[in-house]
Design goal:
With 315 residues, this protein is α/β, with parallel strands linked by helices. The chain has one domain: Class I glutamine amidotransferase (GATase) domain (Rossmann fold). The chain is built from ten helices and twelve strands. Strands 1, 2, 3, 4, 5, 6, 7, 8, 9, 10, 11 and 12 form a twelve-stranded mixed beta sheet that branches. A hairpin with a 4-residue loop joins strand 11 and strand 12. Helix 1 packs across helix 3. The relative contact order is 0.13. Transfers an acetyl group from acetyl-CoA to L-homoserine, forming acetyl-L-homoserine. GO terms for molecular function: homoserine O-acetyltransferase activity; homoserine O-succinyltransferase activity.
């Protein structure tokens, strides 16, 4: 089944060109099923690119999804046309009265700032608190994961001596966890960040479980024990050339940036990068949608609350 998006959204043409199954709102309205309602709080400056990356992963499941794009009213984005925001995005105030099966909070290239110094931090905290009673399961990505772990559990982020930049091997710690169903014991995923979350802090926190780590990149995947919060510190949604574009941009600015590790063949930036993480990226999103959202969310969204219990294996 497809992901349902507005007919005019630029991502639609890109995804259809890749043979990704998307459906217009008009066609979806004729199907006699309840689609999963997924909201995306898009904090990335390259909003259109991020839309395409996330919708590509969300569209590769047997579930029909209805997507709502949310932007920060307290922040004025400089890299996305206002016409695009007006046409395809809603503010949190406009979405506040709705309930959603799932929520994705993206990363943002601001991890060196203290959380409280981010201009939209109060609004984002309000969204994360609102989601407790209005969203069944939330997926936090990169800086979004750091923000969620800090807000919900007080887990700090720490600066790195050098940017964590490249594609790294990760070890599955709990192969029985449904989020990791079908994963290889070791799998690759991209990272691009200047700060880190420490495994010892996650392991010492009640209500959290560490699911996957990297010997080089550290924590990759953590989850609340009830499955309603999933934290991904990397960027599984990245495309083939995303890390390359970041590297080329920084080199063009004269910054002292290392070649992204394990990304180019032989770590040679004159060679075209190879994609090694795509299958696990699709699997991660499919598992989140199936096991964390679809299997537990109530049919009547009005029933979602902080006390909504996930299904047990005996259900």
């Amino acid at each position: 089944m497809p992901v349902t998006i507005p007919s005019a959204l630029p991502a639609r043409r890109i995804l259809e060109g890749e043979n990704v199954f998307v459906m217009t709102e008009g066609r979806a309205g004729h199907q006699d099923i309840r689609p999963l309602r997924i909201a995306i709080v898009n904090l990335m400056p390259t909003k259109m690119a991020t839309e395409t990356q996330l919708l590509r992963l969300l569209g590769n499941t047997p579930l029909q999804l209805e997507i709502t794009l949310i932007r920060m009213a307290s922040h004025d984005p400089r890299n996305t046309a206002q016409a695009h925001l007006d046409a395809f995005y809603t503010t949190f105030e406009e979405a506040r009265g709705d309930k959603f099966d799932g929520l994705i909070i993206t990363g943002a290239p601001i991890e060196t700032l203290p959380f409280e110094a981010v201009d939209y931090w109060p609004e984002l905290c309000e969204i994360m608190d609102w989601a407790t009673d209005h969203v069944y399961s939330t997926l936090y990505v990169c800086w979004g994961a750091q923000a969620g772990l800090f807000h919900h559990y007080g887990i700090e982020k720490y600066p790195l001596a050098h940017k964590m930049f490249g594609v790294f091997a990760h070890r599955v710690l709990d192969p029985r966890n449904r989020v990791l169903s079908g994963f290889d014991e070791v799998f690759p995923a991209p990272h691009s960040r200047h700060t880190e979350i420490r495994a010892s802090d996650v392991e010492a926190t009640d209500g959290l479980q560490l699911l996957a780590v990297s010997d080089e990149a550290g924590v990759y995947l953590a989850a609340s024990t009830d499955g309603r919060h999933l934290y991904v510190t990397g960027h599984p949604e990245y495309e083939r050339d995303t890390l390359k574009a970041e590297y080329d941009r920084d080199i063009g600015r004269g910054l002292d940036i290392a070649v992204p590790r394990h990304y180019y063949p032989g770590d040679d930036p004159t060679q075209p990068p190879m994609v090694s993480w795509r299958s696990h990226a699709f699997l991660l999103y499919a598992n989140w949608l199936n096991y964390c959202v679809y299997q537990g969310t109530p049919y009547d969204l009005a029933a979602i609350s902080s006390h909504t219990a996930p299904p047990s294996d005996e259900d």
